[in-house]
Each structure stands twice: as C-alpha cells, then as structure tokens.
Amino acid sequence: MSLQFLLTAFVVVIAPGTGVLYTLAVSLGQGWRAGLFAALGCTFGILPHLAAAILGLAAILHTSALLFAVVKWAGVAYLLWLAWQSARSGGALNVTEDRQAESALRIARRGALINVLNPKLSIFFLALLPPFLSGDPARAAAEMSALGAVFMGLTFAVFALYAALAAAARDRLLASERAMRWISRSFAGLFAALAGRLALERAA
Fold this sequence. Notes:
204 residues, mainly alpha, 10 helices, globular
C-alpha cells in the first residue's frame, strides 16, 4: 500500500460531491447518528462499482452507450428527486427543527443508491486502481480488492467527520427559521446542479 495511493484516495474522498452533500443534509436535519448511517450507505454504494472494475464489467459500461445512458439517467432522476425532497416542506432532506427521525435502513439505502446510480464511479475505479498494482495478473484481483477496501474505509472516515461537523453546527443553525429555509434551498439547488452535471456526462 503506497503513500501515493493513500494521498490520492484521500484527495478524491474529501472533495465535496453528492455523497458528502447527502451526508451533510442528513446530519443537519437529523443529527450525527443519522449522518453516520448516511455515510455508511454512501460507502457501501461503492461496492458494485468496485466489483465491476475488478471483474472488468466497468469496461463494458464504458463502451456501451445504451447501458451507460440507462444508469446515468436513472441517477439524474434520483438526484432531482433528492433536490425535491430538500426543497419541499416535509421532504426527507428538508432541514427543519421538528423533523422526525427516519429509520437507519432508509437513510443508508438512500445513500447507497446515490453511488450505485453514478456510472462514472465504475470507470473511475478502472482508471484509479491499475497504476497502483504490482503488475502480476495473478494478484490483480486481490490487489484491487485491497485498494478498494482502503478507499471505502477512507470514504466512511471522511464522511463520518463531515457528519460530526454538520451535527455540531445543527443546534445553532436550527435556532433560525430563516437559516433553515436557506440551507434546505441550497441543498436543493446543489442536488439539481449535480443532476445537471451528470446529465452532461458521456461514456467516452
């Protein structure tokens, strides 16, 4: 396990993206425990893409315009739904003081779907992992699995930190109804923007 891989993975994980945004929204709305389950769901949502990269299925997704488009547009629709859930009163991601706690399973499942429906993740692993392999074909699958496990561990740790920071700011922010409305609308706009960016992606 090289230091270069750890640094590369850390930079990728810490960069704000859909998973980070979702974890922050859940943590602000429901607290740190809920944020941990959001982080856990986002982390496990990486598994199908890692498996696809190891088995070579990512290359098929990369070259199949139809398959890529199906997964992509499903992801776009899901992000737009998350935007709606942030914007509407009583929505699952709307930040309000009187929010009822959701089940851990529902929170984690929503986070997992965010990553599962992102077709660029499989291609990302196919590009990220090979440069850090030893070059021995017999060990490639085991090495990619180990690197992927480290990447997932970093993902959960960083997302859990984001959740803790958001939860720490929660009580202060919830004291202002205006701030709550602004936060909810901001999350809605960001999810919609991410949906727009995903819609522009090409299999290439």
